[in-house]
Amino acid sequence: MAQASIDRAGSTLTIDDLRGDRGRTRKEAVARGLLSAAGGFSILISVLIVYSLVRETWTFVTQVDWSLVWGDGWFPRRAMYDIKTLVVGSLIVTVVGIAVAGPIGVGAAIYLSEYASRRVRRFVKPTIEILAGVPSVVVGFFALTFISPELIQRFREGTPQQTMFAAGIGVGVLIIPLVASISEDAMRSVPRSLREASYGMGAKKATTVTKVVLPAAVSGLVAAFIVAVSRAIGETMVVFIAAGKSGGALFETNPFEPGLTMTAAMASIASGTDSVVGEALTFQSLFFVGMLLFVITLSLNMVADRFVRRVRHKY
Question: What's the predicted TM-score (pTM) here?
Answer without folding.
Answer: 0.81
